[in-house]
Structure formats: structure tokens, C-alpha cells
Amino acid sequence: MESFQHHTTVNNHQRELVYAFCSIIFGIFLFFAISNDVIHDLRGEGRYAQTAPWWFLYTFTCQSNIFVLIYLVLFVIGVFGYKKYTKLYHFTHSTALVTSVTLYISITFFVVIFILNSVIKGEYDETADYFIVHNLSPVYMWLIYFFVKTEGKYDWKKLLYTLIYPLTYVVLTAIVGGLVEIYDTETMKNVWAFPYAFLNYKNGVGIYFAYVFGLLLIFSLFGYGLGKLKPKIDRLFVERK
Fold it and tell me: What is the pTM of this model?
């Protein structure tokens, strides 16, 4: 029995070494994709960058991808140095952390598809950077979710911790958007600095709260489902290997 457990542990770590190598490669692409967009705005070349060079950093897309990038860096360090950085290894393999990062980047993916409708409307920006941060990054994080075994249970209390960041983001955008005006080079007008139209309560408080509470409910249930299903996913996709 002990020999079988040792063999399983060795095989699991060998798989994770492969995932870590893949994470290094993807992490490099993700880093440059984020950096290119940030530099683009800092040079004043973005739609709002003339008066808001910080614009891309302000978007949920950028921030959720930074979460993914930080996670991948820690994951790689934890896997390659799991004997030396035991606490870091367990931290990056916690169900709560993997669920949270997966949820954040999933919000980016689903909002782009179903609310901003860039793909459905045929307005899809096919630049490599756009594709990486909106499509590849969510897919890669879902692969981590499905194929990396995690530790610990997920419950409603953990969900509340997961939701701290999205709720903070909503509050931040409400404050900044309501106080700061920026110049829109497409309409050639000053506009309020809301990162997304559906977060602009100046267009209607009712529709604003409908979006905010609706999305909060949907992603709360989605995040809770991700966390609760993770042990079953592990048994199905990881432990059988």
C-alpha cells in the first residue's frame, strides 16, 4: 500500500513538472501580452490613453490576467522547489486559491462573450495580445483547474473571501468612474472613467444595479460550484491517472 502511494505521489509530481514547464512558456507569452497593452497606453496610443495612461491597468481584464500570471509564477516555484518551499507548494494547490483565480479569469472570458458581445457582433479584435488575455488565459487556467490536484474544502465562507476582489473592483470603478473624466479619442468627447458601459450608473441606476447584482449572483453560484466540484474533478481527471 505504501509503495502504491509513493508511486502515485511520484507520478503526480512528474506530471506537475510538465505543467510547470508549460506554465513557464505560457507565462512568458502572457507577460508580454499584458506588458504590450500597458506600454501601448503609457505611450498615449490607446482610446483613452491621452488622459488616462493607466487605463489598461484599470480594466478587469488586465487585473484578472495579472492574478493568473502571479499564480503561475508561484505555482512554478512551488512545483520545482516543493521540498524547499513546502508552504508555497500547498498554497498554490489550495482549492480556494485555484477556484478564486479561475473564477476571476472566467469572468473576463464570459463578460467579453456574453455582455460586450465582441465575438457575436463580429467586432472581435484578433490581435495576439487580445486573444491571449481574453481567450488563452482563461483556457489555460481551466486546464490548471481540471488537471492539478488541490487541497482543502470549499464552502460559503471561502466564497466570501473569493468575492472580496470583484466587490472591491465594483466599488473602485463606481468611485473613479463617478469622479474622473477622461478623453475618448473615438467620440472626441470627455467621458466618465467607467471601464465598461454596464458599470456606468450614470446611464441609469436601475440597469446598473440589475447588472451588478445579476452578475454577482451568477458568478457567486459559478464560483461556489467550481470550489465544491473540485474534489470530484480531481478524482475524475487526476487521481485515476
Answer: 0.92
